[in-house]
Each structure stands twice: as structure tokens, then as C-alpha cells.
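[audit] Reproducing an earlier prediction to check determinism. Same input, same settings, fresh worker. If the C-alpha cells differ from the archived copy the diff job will pick it up downstream; this log only records the rerun itself.
[audit] input (158 residues):
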Amino acid sequence: MKVSMTVNGARYDHDVEPRTLLVHYLRETVGLTGTNIGCDTSSCGACTVLVGGESVKSCTMLAVQADGADITTIEGLADADGELHPVQEAFREKHGLQCGYCTPGMVMAIVSLLKENPHPTETEVREGIEGNLCRCTGYHNIVAAALYAAESAKAGAA
């Protein structure tokens, strides 16, 4: 089947097998390997991307379902000049990663969360990322990074 979508601002047109998962399309066809495959069962969230601005576990969506969509992956967050997205910067500043495998999905989930709720409480952050698993950190620094990004956004808006 023919699919056309915009990924990180660039248009892509490809023929795909109807059963191709979006995560495989992004990694294998488009060549954006920042979106990780952690479980293939939608349990871990390592494959989270933004589809139309909403976080989606890309292992739960077929590429044909994303036809016509605007998709943002972890590679599309930083500015063209390399300046990190505020959530990426917050992860760096607050040491929100260890092995880094869950980080792309966590960052994308938090970007979506902060779009919906720009000033979350710690509890709201924890609830907002509950579909994303980290096997290393115990979540403390991930939550701290989300709260730091929210606070930085408030300071930048003032």
C-alpha cells in the first residue's frame, strides 16, 4: 500500500506492506532509529512518537494508519541548529536517564503531557508517564526533568 506522511517536517512517500508497524516504518524505511523497539506489545513505551501532536506507541499503529499524518520523532525535537528541546535539555540537566533505552519514549510522552498540562504536579507527571517503563532509574530524575521542563517553560513565557 502507498503511504505518505510528514516526519519531522519532511514528506515521505513509500509502498509498504499493510501489516508494517509504524515503528518499523520509521526505523527501517525512513531510517530514524531514535524510536526504540522495547517490547512489541505496547507495554513499555520506548517507541512513543507524536502523531498529530499526540503521543502514540508506534508499535500499536500500522504505517497505513498514519497515512497523511504529521509525525514527530525524538530526532525532530531539537532545533535545526542543534539546540535541544526544553524537555531534552531538562533530561540532560536533571540526569533523567541511565541506560537511555527508554529515554526517547519518555521524552516524547512528556512533551505530549506538557502540551496538555503545562504546569503538572509531581503526581500528574507520574500518572502521565505511567505507560512508559524505565528499568533503571526508579523514575525520580525523570519526574524531576519533567517538572524542570515545565518550570523552565513558565520562566521562558514570563
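[audit] rerun output stored. Observation attached for the diff report: The chain has a mean pLDDT of 94.
[audit] end
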